[in-house]
Design brief:
Layout: E1 4-8, H1 13-23, E2 31-35, H2 36-40, E3 44-48, E4 54-58, E5 66-69, E6 75-76, H3 86-101, E7 107-108, H4 124-133, E8 153-154, E9 163-166, E10 176-183, E11 186-188, H5 193-205, E12 210-216, E13 221-225, H6 233-247
Parallel strand pairs: 1-2, 1-5, 5-7
Antiparallel strand pairs: 3-4, 6-9, 8-9, 10-11, 10-12, 12-13
C-alpha cells in the first residue's frame, strides 16, 4: 500500500502544520498521522519462532508504509500497569517499539539502533567523529563523555495518568550558534554549499533522512540529533515537501 505514517504529538505544532500542508497535495490514505499514545493503544502482535527470532507487527500501520517516528510520548502507562510498575511497563513497551522499528519490513525515515525510536542514539563524540569523516570541521573531542547516550524511555511516575516520555540529552548545548536541518534532499538554514554537502554526507552516514546539525560560532560541528525541531516556516515548508514526495 505504501505511503508514510508520521507518529508525533499534538503539541508539536510545526510537524502538524507540515502534515496538514502536505495532506492537501497527496491522494487520500497516502499520508497518515498518529499520536504516540494512539500508536501505543493499537493492536500489536509479537511472535518468536523456534530459532528465537522475534517478529513485531502493528495493526495500525498499512503494509509497506514508511514510518517517521518523532513522538516523545512513549506509552500511557496506567492502561497496563500498577503505578509501582510504570518503569517496567515503559521499558517493555520501549522494547516492543524498538523491535517493530527495526523490522526489515518497517521502512523508517531514520534508521534506529534499538536505543532510541527517533534514529541512531549516537554520543556527541560519535557524531563529531562522523562529521569529520563527512568533511565538516568539528569541535575537538576533549571533555566529551563517550557515555552520553540518549536515554531510553522513562516513566512519568509522578502522575499515573501521564505518558511515559524519553529524556533526550540537552540540546543544542552550550556554544551553539547555528542549527541546520537536513530533510530529504533539502538543507535548511545552511551557511554555504560546503556546509550543506557535509551535512548531507553526515545524514547519509547516519542513515537519516531527517537530521538536525548544530555548529558553534566558528562554524565547527558541535552535535547532531535525529529528533529535529520543525519550528520555522522554512522548516515546515521543507518537511511538507518531503512528506509529499514520500506519500506519492
Amino acid at each position: 500500500m505504501g505511503g508514510i505514517l508520521v507518529v508525533g504529538d499534538d503539541e508539536d505544532v510545526g510537524i502538524r502544520a507540515a502534515v496538514a500542508a502536505a495532506a492537501r497535495r497527496v491522494r487520500p490514505g497516502r499520508l497518515m498521522w498518529a499520536t504516540g499514545a494512539a500508536l501505543a493503544a493499537a493492536d500489536w502482535i509479537h511472535t518468536v519462532d523456534r530459532s528465537g527470532l522475534g517478529t513485531t507487527r502493528c495493526g495500525a500501520v498499512a503494509r509497506g508504509a514508511r514510518v517517521w517516528f518523532r513522538s516523545t510520548t512513549v506509552a500511557p502507562v496506567r492502561r497496563w500497569a500498577d503505578p509501582r510498575d510504570t518503569d517496567y511497563a515503559a521499558a517493555e513497551y520501549g522494547a516492543l517499539l524498538a523491535s517493530w522499528l527495526r523490522q526489515p519490513e518497517t521502512r523508517t525515515v531514520n534508521e534506529v539502533d534499538g536505543a532510541s525510536p527517533w534514529g541512531p542514539s549516537w554520543t556527541t563524540a560519535r557524531w563529531r567523529k562522523a562529521a569529520t569523516r563527512a568533511g565538516l570541521e568539528a569541535v575537538p573531542l576533549g571533555g566529551v563523555s563517550s557515555a552520553r547516550l540518549m536515554p531510553g524511555p522513562q516513566a512519568a511516575t509522578a502522575d499515573a495518568d501521564a505518558p511515559c516520555r524519553p529524556s533526550p540529552r540537552s540540546w543544542p548545548g552550550p556554544g551553539v550558534e547555528q542549527v541546520v536541518l537536513v530533510v530529504g534532499e533539502h538543507v535548511i538554514d545552511v551557511d554555504g554549499p560546503a556546509q550543506a554537502a557535509g551535512c548531507e554526507r553526515l545524514a547519509a552516514a547516519a542513515r537519516c533522512a531527517v537530521l538536525e546539525v548544530a555548529f558553534d560560532a566558528d562554524g565547527r560541528m558541535a552535535d547532531a540529533r535525529p529528533l529535529a525541531a520543525v519550528d520555522t516556516p522554512a522548516k515546515i515548508a521543507a518537511v511538507a515537501g518531503f512528506l509529499v514526495v514520500e506519500a506519492s
